[in-house]
Amino acid sequence: MNAHVPVMLAEVLEAIQPRDGAHYIDGTFGGGSYACAMLEAADCSVLGIDRDPDAITRGEKLAPRYGGRLSLVRGEFSEMDVLLAETGETQTDGVVLDLGVSSFQLNEAARGFSFREDGPLDMRMSRSGSSAADLVNTADEKTLADILRRFGEERQARRIARAIIGARPLTRTRELAEVVSKALGPAAAREPIHPATRTFQALRIYVNDELGELERGLSAAEGVLRTGGRLAVVAFHSLEDRIVKRFLVERSRPAAASRHEPVPPSRAPQTFRLVWHGVRTPRLEEIARNPRARSARMRAAERVALAA
Questions:
Q1: pLDDT tens, position by position, 279-296
Q2: Based on the number of CB atoms within 10 Å of its own CB, is 65 exposed (0-12), middle (13-18) or buried (19 or more)?
Q3: How far apart are CA 184 and CA 204, in angstroms?
Q4: Has this prediction a pTM greater than 0.85?
Q5: Cα→Cα distances 193→70, 171, 181, 241, Å
Q6: Would you call the peptide bond into 192 cis, given omega within 30 degrees of 0 as the criterion?
Q7: Beta carbons of 57 and 31 less than 8 angstroms apart
Q8: In what order do the strands lie in the sheet with 45-50?
Q9: Which of 57, 213, 73, 22 is nearest to 221 (CA)?
Q10: pLDDT tens digits, one per residue of 92-131
């Protein structure tokens, strides 16, 4: 299956509330599912951003059906303020972020994101910069272990790092998966997820600086959203969701109500109000149709005017 199935699409549309004449940003364009759904829900315009050149190529084939309402630009969503300004706009009415790797990237063995099919150990979303192979073949044991522990939450990080160094050079996804499986032993093979899953996640996040990109992207969205604009973020693991939760909780905290309760100097001004409290998860019917949705977590907020 090569098609990308959007996760929590109905909830994203509920949060964003597309309306005629409005402008929106799909910061992780991918296969264009969210962008197309917004364009079909209202007579609006959408700027699609993606650092993957393949995603932009797919989008260029979709654009003609929307009569100029879909614009595309290759770049990182953390730079959406700059990319938006280059189109002649300065603000937007909504930002959608669908984090992590897309089905297109996972399903193409040559991209090296998955061990389901053998391919080069690449994992670069932008197809530029250092690859996962560069990392595993040059980093020292401590660096590799720290990456696996921090970004993959891998408890056996040191053991895996040692095994990787002993098996160098590694250039293929299946090679790496086998090294990790062997390092973790037979017990790991009985776990519900493949033994190499956390290692691949960690390397991918590190190679693409995904958590740094997310932190910068949330701040960029805060800057470009006009008052009343909505932000919707779909995350797929706890590291991403923790960053989104922390940002929105901090930015939605009301200022002190009186002069007797001054705002602490370290507290950011309130710039958002939560659309709903807490996190939303996929419905059971969606998980049954699309198992990829099972780990999704969605949060949404509305931009508010800064207090005087």
A1: 999 999 999 999 889 999
A2: exposed
A3: 20
A4: yes
A5: 38, 23, 11, 20
A6: no
A7: no
A8: 70-74, 45-50, 23-26, 92-98, 225-235, 297-303, 272-274
A9: 213
A10: 999 999 998 888 888 899 999 999 999 999 999 999 999 9
Cα end-to-end span (Å), the chain: 53
Residue recorded with tokens 């005087």: 308
132, 121 contact by CB (below 8 A): yes
185 alpha-carbon distance from chain centroid: 31
H/E stretch holding 72 reads strand 70-74
Q: Comparing C-alpha atoms, which of 244, 245, 233, 242 is closest to residue 150?
A: 242
Alpha-carbon torsion angle 280, 282, 92, 55, nearest 10:
140
Single out the residue of 96, 295, 99, 94 nearest to residue 197, CA to CA: 295
Of residues 162, 165, 161, 155, the one with CA closest to residue 187: 155
- H helices of the chain, in order, are 9-16, 33-41, 53-62, 80-86, 103-107, 132-138, 141-152, 157-167, 173-184, 186-189, 197-207, 210-224, 238-251, 284-289
> Per-residue DSSP letters for 145-168?
HHHHHHHH--TTHHHHHHHHHHH-
Which token pair is 182? Answer: 């062997």
Token pair for residue 13? 């549309």
